[in-house]
Write a structure and sequence with these properties.
- This protein is an alpha/beta fold.
- The chain is built from 18 helices and 22 strands.
- The protein has helices spanning 47-54, 77-82, 100-105, 109-112, 116-128, 144-157, 174-189, 201-207, 230-238, 297-305, 327-332, 342-346, 353-358, 375-388, 405-418, 435-450, 462-468, 491-499, and strands spanning 9-18, 21-31, 36-40, 62-67, 70-72, 85-88, 162-166, 193-198, 210-215, 218-223, 256-266, 272-282, 286-290, 312-317, 320-321, 335-338, 368-369, 372-373, 423-427, 454-458, 471-476, 479-484.
- Strands 6-7-8-3-9-10 form a 6-stranded mixed beta sheet, sandwiched between helices. Strands 16-19-20-13-21-22 form a 6-stranded mixed beta sheet, sandwiched between helices. Strands 2-1-4-5 form a 4-stranded antiparallel beta sheet, with helices on one face.
- α14 packs across α15 and α15 packs parallel to α16 (435-450).
- The radius of gyration is 24 Å and the shape is globular.
- It starts with 8 loop residues before the first strand and ends in a 10-residue tail after the last helix.
């Protein structure tokens, strides 16, 4: 690179401290104009803190931020936006009841008003970067991938020339990831600079021009994706080799822990979201459910947990018919639940960790003593979970919102495992976590299986499904359309079944 071309972004010696923790320590980052630059590291390594500093959400305690060779000081995100830096957060900040146009212009009405000029500008942005947005669509009607593109359009509408994307693929299915990478290629072609935070090493190597690795709050090196393997990147990130989900020998016993017979769940419109599903899970068995999102997996989980009524069918837990049991009774009967969306269903973000330990377990020790919440018992058990499950936080009184995604997930897994359930519903248990946390969660699931727990595993990670499952069903349009042997299956073959491109001779159990 020539000296005459200043770097789009340069961070020199950035240090950021919070009470009890140094989130970033002496970080160096160099991003060339017009490149896609990935920042990788474990959950809790300090990636998001660093990007929030670049976006003006935090003031660094030490160090300099340079844009195009000039030092800048941001007091707020509006300063960063004015300087051409925009950020798309991992958890979208959109108003569901507004249209795409209204969401994009909200707070930036001075740029192009709120009428035809704004509509033209949004259409121009959508066309230029292949975002495929309709300004009049209601956001609540959009899928996750489209919502993310609305967030990208919001940033571009404000004139950003450097985009920060925080874990942009965490909530996307494989097809949406490919579409996003196409969008990033368009942004780069138009001369924009993209910095994106990730821990998915194969994706990073596919899309990034260069990579900076962060470990425990500091930069440990840079890497060229063309010459660095996922294994080498993982070793830089966590100082260990890439984990594998492969299970050990079979631990399946004959006794059933879950039997669903002819279960149908209707949508509000009356269409079956789950259509005549019969499913058996035995002790010591991981039953995987594969499917493109939106094919009934979420409704199937809700049916097992008692969150949706059945239109038809029965559900047995062991020898008990639980079809009409409340969610609380099912929990007390021995069902553990790792929800798909940890923020909406798994945690209270503004509550301390010990209160989150109590959630869903508020009728049993150590959460209660008699009719009252046992604060001391809950705190002590939270400290135990933090130690056993490697939840990195100052203590049980830390607010959940202060934890990285991986540490939040480990707390949820620890909470659910601590009740020693007979049946565990694990919906996307490693979504949004790094290779280190992923490895911990895989080992926990394998150990629970070996001890006789039945597990229903729903995941968009095909390697995870194939590696962990003893039996694998494919769900398409609400039905179980194939039963496959994971030991003789490739991700490509499984993907074919999921889209309906491959018809299977296997019939649901």
């Amino acid at each position: 690179m020539t000296e005459s071309a200043p770097l789009a972004v340069e961070l020199r010696g950035i240090t950021k401290r919070f009470p009890g923790v140094v989130a970033n320590r002496d970080i160096e980052l160099r991003v060339a104009r017009g490149e896609v630059h990935a920042i990788v590291g474990e959950n809790g390594a300090g990636k998001s803190t660093l990007m929030k500093t670049l976006y003006g959400m935090h003031r660094p305690d030490e160090g300099q931020i340079l844009l195009d060779g000039r030092e800048v000081v941001f007091k707020s995100p509006s300063d960063a936006i004015a300087a051409g830096v925009g950020m798309v957060h991992q958890h979208f900040m959109l108003a569901d009841n507004l249209t795409v146009l209204e969401n994009v212009v909200l707070g930036a009405e001075k740029s192009h008003g709120i009428g035809e000029k704004a509509r033209r500008r949004i259409t121009e942005i959508s066309d230029s970067y292949a975002l495929g947005l309709d300004p009049d669509s209601l956001v609540e009607d959009l899928g996750v991938g489209d919502r993310q593109r609305v967030e990208i359009a919001k940033v571009l509408y404000r004139g950003a020339t450097t985009l920060i994307l925080d874990e942009p693929t965490a909530v996307l299915v494989p097809q949406e990831v490919d579409e996003l990478f196409g969008n990033l290629a368009e942004l780069k072609r138009e001369g924009l600079t993209v910095i994106f935070i990730s821990h998915k090493l194969d994706e990073v190597r596919k899309v990034a021009d260069s990579i900076t690795v962060i470990r425990r709050g500091t930069t440990v090196g840079t890497a060229d994706p063309a010459t660095t393997s996922a294994k080498q990147l993982a070793e830089m990130m966590v100082g260990a080799q890439l984990p594998t989900p492969q299970t050990r020998t079979s631990t399946v016993r004959e006794a059933s822990v879950l039997l669903m017979s002819g279960v149908t769940v209707a949508t509000p419109g009356g269409r079956p979201a789950v259509d005549d599903v019969t499913l058996r899970v035995r002790e010591g068995e991981v039953v995987g459910i594969a499917g493109v999102e939106g094919n009934g997996q979420a409704e199937l989980v809700d049916a097992i947990m008692g969150l949706r009524p059945l239109a038809a069918g029965t559900i047995d837990l062991g020898t008990d018919d639980i079809t009409r049991w409340s969610t609380r009774a099912r929990r007390e009967g021995g069902i553990g639940f790792i929800p798909e969306d940890r923020h909406r269903q798994g945690m209270l973000l503004d509550a301390p960790l010990w209160e989150n330990r109590v959630l869903g377990h508020q009728t049993r020790p150590p959460s209660v003593k008699g009719p009252f919440i046992d604060r001391r018992g809950a705190r002590a058990d939270t400290a135990r979970i933090m130690s056993e499950y490697d939840v990195r936080a100052p203590g049980p009184d830390t607010l959940a919102v202060a934890l990285s995604g991986g540490n939040q997930q480990k707390l949820i897994v620890g909470r659910e495992m601590s009740a020693a359930p007979r049946l565990l519903i694990a919906a996307h248990p490693t979504r949004g976590v790094d290779v280190g946390a992923q490895s911990v969660i895989w080992e926990l699931l394998k150990d629970a299986r070996a001890e006789g727990m039945g597990i229903v595993l729903i995941s968009a990670d095909l390697d995870e499904l194939i590696g962990l499952s003893d039996t694998l069903h494919v769900m398409l349009r609400g039905r179980l359309v194939a039963t496959l042997d994971p030991s003789a299956l490739t991700p490509e073959e499984l993907g074919g079944h999921m889209t309906g491109a491959v018809q299977s001779a296997g019939s649901p159990a």
